[in-house]
Amino acid sequence: KAGVTQTPRYLIKTRGQQVTLSCSPISGHRSVSWYQQTPGQGLQFLFEYFSETQRNKGNFPGRFSGRQFSNSRSEMNVSTLELGDSALYLCASSLGLGGAGYGYTFGSGTRLTVV
Amino acid sequence: EDQVTQSPEALRLQEGESSSLNCSYTVSGLRGLFWYRQDPGKGPEFLFTLYSAGEEKEKERLKATLTKKESFLHITAPKPEDSATYLCAVQHLAGGTSYGKLTFGQGTILTVHP
């Protein structure tokens, strides 16, 4: 059974640019959550999507946005990149909203470096 | 606001030396407490979910317990392959826009020497 797939694995962008990250959940999972992981702040919740609708949102600026497609795949977009956006971005999928089912399974993440 | 504090920040053990990791939390109504293991360069790997005080779960050399204010991850006779960062996270009860949110602690870096 394939796990959560995130692409690309590594990304280098210039300050001011925008970036789009992709996440394919486990087959049958309908919820996708996004997290930012940094050495200083640890893992912080960005948002959760279920049935193509954003259901929950963390305390991040509007530059961080996302969407979910009908096949449950999700993308996250960060506009006007800042140096502080350098982080490991993790995607987690679950059967239902809020981790219903068997909790959350995480992907390996996308390492974003902003220079 | 939910808060999770893990201790110690780092723990070095000799192979076979049992110990415990602590996760203390403050949450307005606990839906679940999660333990994850994270290896360098990888995403967190699910270990356990605990839902109510008094609950215990075991998996190989790991045992997780839960009280009303904290959780412990006991590691019995650890091996070098148990070296990793162990993360604790809480999820609070349904309601509002933060229902699906996991609040993570900073993690405990465990190193097991042969």
Overview of this protein structure:
The complex is a heterodimer of chains A (115) and B (114). In chain A, strands 2, 4, 5, 6, 9, 10 and 11 form a seven-stranded mixed β-sheet that branches. The model of chain A has no long low-confidence stretch (mean pLDDT 93). Chain A is mainly beta. Chain A has no helices and eleven strands. The radius of gyration of chain A is 13 Å and the shape is globular. Helix content of chain B is 0%, strand content 57%. Chain B has strands at residues 3-7, 10-14, 19-26, 30-38, 45-50, 56-59, 62-66, 70-75, 84-92, 103-104, 108-113. In chain B, strands 2, 4, 5, 9, 10 and 11 form a six-stranded mixed β-sheet that branches. A five-stranded antiparallel β-sheet of chain B has the order 1-3-8-7-6, with no helix packed on it. The radius of gyration of chain B is 14 Å and the shape is globular. The mean pLDDT of chain B is 92. The chains are: A mainly beta (115), B mainly beta (114). The interface between A and B is medium-sized, with 26 and 26 residues.
How many strands, what sense, and barrel or not for the largest sheet of chain A? 7 strands, mixed
Fraction of residues in H or I helices of chain A: under 10%
Mean pLDDT of chain A: 93
- As an assembly, this protein is heterodimer
Q: Which two chains touch over the largest interface?
A: A-B, 26 and 26 residues
Number of contiguous helices of chain B: 0
Over all CA atoms, what is the radius of gyration of chain A? 13 Å
For the report, how would you describe the main beta sheet of chain B?
6 strands, mixed
Total number of helices of chain A: 0
Furnish the topology, listing elements before pairings.
The complex is a heterodimer of chains A (115) and B (114).
Chain A (H helix, E strand, L loop, with lengths): L4 E3 L2 E4 L5 E6 L6 E8 L3 E9 L2 E5 L6 E5 L5 E5 L8 E8 L10 E2 L3 E5 L1
Parallel strand pairs in A: 2-11
Antiparallel strand pairs in A: 1-3, 3-8, 4-5, 4-9, 5-6, 7-8, 9-10, 9-11
Chain B lengths: L2 E5 L2 E5 L4 E8 L3 E9 L6 E6 L5 E4 L2 E5 L3 E6 L8 E9 L10 E2 L3 E6 L1
Parallel strand pairs in B: 2-11
Antiparallel strand pairs in B: 1-3, 3-8, 4-5, 4-9, 6-7, 7-8, 9-10, 9-11
